[in-house]
């Protein structure tokens, strides 16, 4: 938050205003009011998704995850995960990390 930009929510949340105790909706894709920043978990902010450590996954699990994501209804063409190289474990990890980064920047 040192960049001067206010944090933005990934999802709509309802929190209690600390002064009035009223339930208050904080809307997705909107900056969080200063009074609410301490009430919101960092995982609910855009661009803060904790990276998955794919290095601990087996090659079979990595292949299954690529297949699962590519089988999602809203994926086609350029949105499909393309695994570079021969499809070994480092290639699968690179493809999944790139897909995670693309999803976080949307």
Please provide a written account of the structure.
Residues 65-90 are annotated as: Disordered. There is one protein chain. The protein has 106 residues and is an alpha+beta fold. The protein has two domains: 1-50, no CATH class; 54-104, no CATH class. Helices cover 26% and strands 8% of the residues. It is built from two helices and two strands; from the N terminus they run E-E-H-H. It has helices spanning 59-70, 89-104; strands at 13-16, 23-26. A two-stranded antiparallel sheet has the order 1-2. A hairpin with a 6-residue loop joins strand 1 and strand 2. Helix 1 packs across helix 2 (89-104). The longest helix has 16 residues, at 89-104. The relative contact order is 0.14. The mean pLDDT is 82.
Q: In DSSP terms, counting alpha (H) and pi (I) runs of 4 or more, how many helices?
A: 2
Main beta sheet: strand number and arrangement? 2 strands, antiparallel
**Structural class, from helix and strand content?**
alpha+beta
Task: Tell me the number of strands.
Answer: 2
The share of residues in helices is 25-40%
Averaged pLDDT: 82
Q: How many structural domains does the protein architecture include?
A: 2
Strand order of the largest sheet: 1-2
What sequence of helices (H) and strands (E) makes up the elements? EEHH
Terminal CA distance reads 19 Å
- Anisotropy-based shape: elongated
Region (Disordered): 65-90
